[in-house]
């Protein structure tokens, strides 16, 4: 305490001015005066006296700021930092990056990101790279092999079959034409071509009288199964790879044979010629909203087997010349007249006056909307009129109400017979909780009952 008091009295009596750095206590001032090099706070900067500061007036604040430190402090070590700072400001070409080369990167402070770096950081992260599996690689090879084949098409001759064929490559123009023809129905309609797949369907089309334009196969040995092999000499035969045949095929397992036929100019004449010798029943089948091509093909097949007069497709049905529909028909398309798809308002043009209408609909029991009489299919008098119009709808919605209303108008306009005796809803009784039958199955049941009744009335076995 005595020593501290003596120091304080010495400081009060002396005329030396002691600068204060951050700490304003008297003891701190004394300590900084006695040991300034040891007691100066870290990071303290002392401004050096600038020569121009001597010209400043006592009232000038700039002069006060620059003459605050005596010259004796510059002799110590802690004033050298300010000298380096001033030298750095006076050198315009100083490159900090050159000085930082030798500094370890872990000790550097993170620099401020530029605008481009921040923009890149704002982007969503790139998706992970998908590594293709073996199946994906094989599929990609199948899809791209047509663009990677540098070979040219080559003509070959088979001595056993005595046939000439062409090994078709993907860079051939005929390859592209065949692919577009087989894969697009619009191209087939524009070129008036029919595509039949499989040995049996090709033989049915040839026997029906269609003009054979080309044969596409994945194995020349499959041509031996065709019974008209001797007539293939005038027809171009193309051999393609198995992968190509799988791509062009509409089936899960390709049979390896595709026949391209020319569409006849008069299909009705072709059908009439094929139906020679079979008696046509006075029955017209109207299909309403049959969207499944396989079901429509089965319906056409049943109609050809019963030998109905014609099949009419309304708008909303599948196309009759679809590849799946042709396969479901098994050649029946060339043995029964098919019209449509047509609009509903065009239906009266294909209906004969005085016909009775039978709607095959099993949705609601005792359904007698629009004046229809509900009866079992085997209790309807199909011979009460000269012609029978059988209307069948899809499995989901059945016959639409618009068609029922149209039939109701047609029966009201013709007064030859009571309207209620010309409109029937055919009901097929089912057991074991089964709600409905397949469309083609239900049509077959009703058609064969019609055939039995009509032939009985004519006295024909």
UniProtKB/TrEMBL annotation:
Residues 102-122 have a biased composition (Basic and acidic residues). Gene3D superfamilies: 3.30.1330.30, 3.40.1280.10. GO terms for biological process: methylation; RNA processing. The keyword Methyltransferase applies. Residues 283-448 form the tRNA/rRNA methyltransferase SpoU type domain. Residues 52-80, 102-129 are annotated as: Disordered. Keywords: Methyltransferase, Transferase. The keyword Disulfide bond does not apply. GO terms for molecular function: RNA binding; RNA methyltransferase activity. Residues 184-258 form the MRM3-like substrate binding domain. It comes from the Eukaryota. Belongs to the class IV-like SAM-binding methyltransferase superfamily. RNA methyltransferase TrmH family. This is AGAP003655-PA. It comes from Anopheles gambiae (African malaria mosquito).
């Amino acid at each position: 305490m005595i020593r501290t008091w003596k120091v304080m009295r010495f400081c009060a009596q002396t005329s030396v001015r002691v600068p204060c750095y951050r700490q304003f206590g008297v003891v701190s001032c004394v300590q900084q005066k006695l040991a300034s090099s040891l007691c100066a706070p870290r990071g303290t900067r002392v401004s050096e006296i600038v020569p121009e500061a001597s010209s400043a007036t006592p009232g000038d604040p700039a002069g006060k700021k620059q003459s605050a430190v005596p010259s004796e402090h510059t002799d110590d070590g802690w004033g050298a930092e300010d000298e380096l700072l001033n030298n750095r400001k006076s050198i315009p070409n100083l490159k900090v990056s050159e000085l930082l080369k030798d500094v370890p990167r872990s000790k550097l402070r993170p620099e401020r990101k530029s605008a481009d770096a921040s923009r890149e950081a704002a982007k969503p992260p790139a998706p992970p790279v998908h590594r293709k599996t073996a199946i994906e690689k094989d599929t990609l090879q199948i899809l791209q092999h047509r663009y990677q084949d540098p070979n040219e098409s080559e003509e070959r001759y088979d001595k056993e079959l005595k046939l000439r064929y062409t090994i078709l490559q993907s860079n051939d123009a005929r390859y592209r034409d065949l692919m577009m023809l087989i894969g697009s129905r619009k191209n087939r309609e524009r070129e008036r071509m029919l595509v039949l797949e499989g040995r049996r369907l090709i033989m049915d089309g040839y026997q029906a009288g269609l003009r054979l334009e080309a044969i596409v196969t994945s194995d020349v040995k499959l041509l031996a199964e065709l019974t008209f092999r001797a007539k293939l000499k005038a027809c171009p035969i193309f051999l393609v790879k198995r992968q190509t045949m799988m791509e062009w095929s509409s089936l899960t397992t390709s049979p390896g044979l595709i026949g391209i036929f020319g569409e006849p100019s008069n299909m009705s004449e072709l059908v009439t010629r094929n139906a020679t010798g079979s008696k046509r029943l006075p029955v017209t089948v109207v299909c309403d909203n049959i969207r499944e091509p396989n079901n429509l093909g089965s319906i056409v097949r049943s109609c050809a087997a019963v030998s109905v007069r014609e099949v009419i497709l309304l708008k909303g049905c599948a196309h009759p010349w679809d590849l799946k529909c042709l396969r479901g028909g098994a050649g029946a398309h060339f043995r029964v007249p098919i019209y449509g798809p047509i609009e509903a308002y065009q239906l009266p043009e294909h209906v004969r006056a005085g016909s009775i209408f039978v709607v095959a609909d099993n949705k609601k029991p005792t359904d007698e909307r629009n004046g229809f009489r509900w009866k079992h299919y085997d209790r309807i008098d199909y011979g009460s009129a000269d012609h029978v119009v059988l209307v069948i709808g899809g499995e989901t919605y059945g016959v639409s109400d618009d068609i029922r209303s149209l039939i109701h108008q047609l029966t009201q306009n013709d007064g030859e017979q009571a309207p209620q005796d010309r409109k029937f809803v055919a009901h097929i009784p089912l057991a074991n909780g089964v709600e409905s039958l397949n469309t083609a199955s239900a049509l077959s049941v009703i058609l064969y009952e019609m055939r039995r009744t009509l032939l009985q009335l004519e006295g024909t076995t």
